[in-house]
Design goal:
about 110 residues; alpha+beta; Glutaredoxin; four-stranded mixed sheet; 4 helices; 4 strands; globular
């Protein structure tokens, strides 16, 4: 997790993040690391209106991350076979595409 925490997580374009997992399964490590990154005080300070919801289940369900952006688009990642770095990369590439400041800078 130390390598992924160096990059800054920006939640400007995000409305809600719901993270569901069963903590007793062996395949939830990357999902929990992703939750720690987006739930940190530094990341939350980039968008105080973003809801970060963790749903802890005990039903042996696979870990799922459901991200809703401010424009209504959703990104659903099934964390069973993804690393934290892969999830963070997919998440941040979408956030950069949706960030209004990046689109203004690219038009110049």
């Amino acid at each position: 997790m130390a390598a992924t925490s160096k990059s800054t997580v920006l939640l400007k374009a995000v409305k809600k993040i719901t993270i569901q997992f069963c903590p007793f399964e062996s395949n939830v490590r990357s999902t929990r690391e992703f939750l720690a990154l987006v739930g940190s005080a530094k990341a939350r300070s980039t968008n105080m209106n973003c809801e970060v919801i963790s749903v802890v289940k005990h039903d042996k369900s696979e870990p799922v991350i459901d991200i809703t952006y401010v424009d209504g688009e959703r990104l659903v990642m099934k964390g069973e076979r993804l690393t934290c770095r892969e999830m963070l990369s997919a998440f941040q590439s979408r956030c950069k595409d949706k960030d209004p400041q990046n689109s203004i800078a690219s038009k110049r």
